[in-house]
Description:
This protein is an alpha+beta fold. The protein has one helix at 2-20; strands at residues 24-30, 33-35, 38-41, 46-51, 59-61, 68-69, 78-82, 87-93, 100-105.
Amino acid sequence: MRLFSAAIIACAIILSAGLAGAAELSVSQKNRSFDPKILDARLGDTVLLVNDDRYAHNLYSETSGFEFNVRKQMPGSTYSLKLDKRGAFEILCVIHPRMKMTVNVK
């Protein structure tokens, strides 16, 4: 029984240690631009894509393995993106083609 309890506690510590380092990183969309334009993040982090603009945006990524499409994101709203894969990907806006940023997940 003690061995079983010790194994459960050890597993819980290992799992929580991996999640404890996760962060929430904010990206602002304002004046039809991303801030920051390059974001360095870690596996397990969450990116909050905040529309601080007067305009709706439609954010998406077509990078293989990182595909998503927010559809219409209204001013004042936030979209949450969990980073569960290492690599780099681009985020773009369908409505404003000059809007682009890169996320590097380590």
